[in-house]
Amino acid sequence: MFKKLLFLLLTLFIGLQSWANFILIPMDYDTQKDHLKAYGITYWSLERDTKVQWLLNYRGGSFLIPASEKLERECKIRGVSFEKISTNEATSILESIQSPSQNQEAVVLEKAPKIAVYTPQGNEPWDDAVTLVLTYAEIPYETIYDEEVLNNELTLYDWVHLHHEDFTGQYGKFYRAYRSAKWYIEEKKKAEDRARNLGYDKVSEAKLAVAIKVRDYVIGGGFMFAMCSATDSFDIALAAKDVDICEPMFDGDQTTPGYLNKLDFTQNMAFKDFTLEKDPMVYEYSSIDMTNNRKVPKDKDYFTLKEFSAKWDPIPSMLNQNHTAIVKGFMGQTTAFNPSQIKSNVLILGKTKINGEAKYIHGIKGKGFFTFYGGHDPEDYQHRVGDPPTELELHPNSPGYRLILNNILFPAAEKEKQKT
Fold it and tell me: With left for phi above 0 and alpha for psi between -120 and 50, is residue 385 left, alpha or beta?
């Protein structure tokens, strides 16, 4: 009976061509030459209506794809390692994966998700880790910003990434270091003009409206991913929906008296009970972020990915697929999250053991999902304004960047609510 089920699975997977051979794209440490471009090959296959099996926890989260000359050629062109295997070998692999003794699972990816990146016009791909790795992996995406979000264009996409944005209207809390810099003055004016053109009196009001639209998109079934300052500033904006938390140098008027005690944590998605940083001269939003309190030496800065049951919890298992469970840490305006201020229904996917901070978290909101990833660039430990871009050609096997690409493929699979 079990072998009959496996045969049916393979038949469903490859249609009538049950005699076809397969391409196995290994994702383990020793075999794969370019882990990042391997995701691009998987996406390329999905674009061509070819179903892909994601073999969770099998050789680093490998991919199994029906063989074709075009696929082989594309792998060779992109420098992606692959292995040609027979149908019998594929059946044997699936049989092993389905064994109750193995913490493994085969998940069918069915379609290429349509990807949007929320980012202002003029930003280059290397301004953001997500656009950088999408470009390197040759995965197509479209850019949107406030106008498109407020015009309800998010519904055109399966997955949206929030660029390193400040949704609170405080211009990234760059006031102390850059308030006299030409770029800061110009960006502030552009943001103010954009808000007025959209019908809002202040930037904070426009950004709040955007945050609410994104939240509603997730509630309706969308997939949202954010890194660095877009994580905590997004939740802060939602919690501060009915109060003014911006000091006069940001929006020209006074804050709401006693606003620290008027935040509504039922409005936001991931965090609770945080305290805002009131001082405009401090490069920090709130107590959510651990950057200034972590005291973690660079040579010991690693976070560990939690292992989940692939058969019972396929969602976090997909998000944590990697060729290593220990990932090099990296900083950002928002580096990591205070675990005491994460809501109880949010999963911690990755944690820095030396101080217990959460680096990588995931949650469900309504019918949709969100993932927050602390830090700016997985291969640039402490990225600063004006630093040169990361050359991903030098980091084709980056485990930190793999976590981003796991999230890209996540919407391609049929989802089941996790059991734990």
Answer: beta
